[in-house]
Amino acid sequence: MIQTIDAAAFQRAVIHAYAAINAQKQAINDLNVFPVPDGDTGTNMTLTIGAAAQDMKKKQYDGVGQAANAAASALLRGARGNSGVILSLLFRGFAKAVRDKTTMDGADLAMALDFGVAAAYKAVMKPAEGTILTVLRDISTKADECEKKRMTAEEALDAIVVEAY
Length: 165
Prior knowledge:
By secondary structure, the protein is mainly α. Helices cover 73% and strands 0% of the residues. Helix 1 runs antiparallel to helix 3, helix 2 packs antiparallel against helix 3 and helix 6 packs antiparallel against helix 7. The mean pLDDT is 92.
């Protein structure tokens, strides 16, 4: 059982997140009907997280805080469309919460998601229910529940993924 997430695990997670979003890009595009049915959310998110995945492949980091900060910077530089900007802000808040951490446990993960979700919500003038913001809020709530139950990082991530679905 994985108790904590280190820089290498964080980097692998970003790389795998890119692969997962890229594999579902068209399905995500097809879901994109609000606020405008422009059908590019999957494409924009793939391009955005792809920038971070490329950076995560180039360098090893001493701590999860350094890796998260590098990912957030790459996401901001690579942000495409509204969904990309929201994703980059999620990571910006996340990175802020773990900036001094070498590793993060379940409690750190919950706090980082709270920071990330707050940053993402602040960027949207009129957040609407049923969007990616709703999913982010719900996973942040789940992370808080996991922290209260003192779950390991692995247990918390498993529960968060289930909640996201």
